[in-house]
Amino acid sequence: MKFRASLCLAAAAVTLSLLILHCCDNTKLWIKLLFGFPPRNRELQLFKLDVAWPKDPGLFTGVPFDVAVDHQNSLVYVAQRGDNVSKVLVFTEEGYFKESWSTNTLEMPHGIFAAINPNDQSIWITDVGQGQYGHTVKQYSLSGKLLTVLGTPGKAGSNLSPLQFDQPADIFVKTNGDLYIVDGDGGLNNRLLMLTKEFNVQWTLGGNGTKPGEFYIPHCVAVDEFGRVWVADRGNKRIQVFDSVSGEWIGTWDTCFSEDGPYSVRITEDMKYIVVAQLNISRLLFLAFPPIGKIGQCRVVSTIQMADGVRPHLVDVSLMTGSVYVAELGAQQVQRYVYV
Questions:
Q1: 179-183 β-sheet, strand order
Q2: Which residues pair with 19 in a beta bridge?
Q3: Reduced to 3 states, what is the DSSP secondary structure of residue 58?
Q4: Where are the beta strands (DSSP E) in 55-164?
Q5: Which of 17, 185, 233, 330 has CB atoms 3.0–4.6 Å from 311's, for a disulfide?
């Protein structure tokens, strides 16, 4: 009888505690006080893997380093490396293979960007090769015809006139034609350059270091609708943000990357999240996208933990469907994630 009474009293205490929690604003504190442990934050599942994309994964004959989405024509461009393989594969957003490029002007593609707007339809690729075509940023037609070469082919350097790169990592092109380039992927330069649509250098900032405006392996760049430039400062395990017109430093995110630095930075089509790949721990982060104004500090909304060895490198987002495409070095494929 005493045991039953004790059970009833315990049940009543728990019920009373839950009622208190329901009425109390500081629920997390009460849970910790009553039960001795903090509550786990519930993480949203935003995206799921589309196992049907692409239709034939065996077409990835090399190692995909980056992916770019032409949202207007519903095409996906994959930049891959390898001996005796096409450096660019083209798929439809439905997953069907369309074509491969036969160009011989690419050595080691790193970043790829689809510049699709009323004034331009072209594909930009950064080349970190050490041969006669390397250390350059190249513009191609949608079918793979070489249109423009920025930098001094085959010669690494830091000059602005003539323009030189040392393993340029990534490029982002705004709809007005302005170009933002991070240079480089482990080379001499750790800098961000802004070029006009006429390819004139407007400003540059950087240098190897940890201070605001300095970088250690700037790996990816994106520009949002509010005129902010987001740079994945990989080696420093942080994201830095700058004004797209002046280059003025706005802020830094560094609290979300203690396990591994950010390899990518892309903004979802609904402008709610920033997608970050962490290669060494095979993880995707979805960070809350800050509205106009101060960026504050980063906040993880959702994660996708991939299998060991997948090694996600760079990503892109379809502005039409919202799908996230991920180039994976370890798995040697590109996969698509769609909203749940």
A1: 168-173, 179-183, 191-195, 201-206
A2: none
A3: helix
A4: 63-70, 75-81, 88-92, 97-100, 109-117, 120-127, 136-140, 146-150
A5: 330
The pTM is what?
A: 0.88
DSSP 8: H
- Which are the contacts of 38, defined by CB distance < 8 A and separation ≥ 6? 28, 31, 32
Q: How far apart are CA 112 and CA 109, in angstroms?
A: 8
* Structure tokens that stand for 89 in this block: 């594969």
Domain regions of the chain by residue span = 2-35, 47-339
Shortest CA distance to 151 belongs to which of 117, 110, 210? 110
Say if residues 92 and 76 touch (Cβ distance below 8 Å).
yes
CATH number of 47-339: 2.120.10.30
- For the record, the structure tokens of 19 come out as 């009622």
Write out the chain's pLDDT in tens, 340 residues.
444 445 444 445 544 444 443 443 444 444 344 434 344 446 789 999 999 999 999 999 999 999 999 999 999 999 999 999 999 999 999 999 999 999 999 999 999 999 998 889 999 999 999 999 999 999 999 999 999 999 999 999 999 999 999 999 999 999 999 999 999 899 899 999 999 999 999 999 999 999 999 999 999 999 999 999 999 999 999 999 999 999 999 999 999 999 999 999 999 999 999 999 999 999 999 999 998 878 999 999 999 999 999 999 999 999 999 999 999 999 999 999 999 9
Rounded CA separation 275/286 (Å)? 5
CA–CA distance, 21 with 309 (Å, rounded to integer)? 43
Question: What end-to-end distance do the CA atoms of the chain give, in Å?
Answer: 52
**115 vs 72: CA distance, rounded Å:** 10
3 state DSSP class of 4: helix
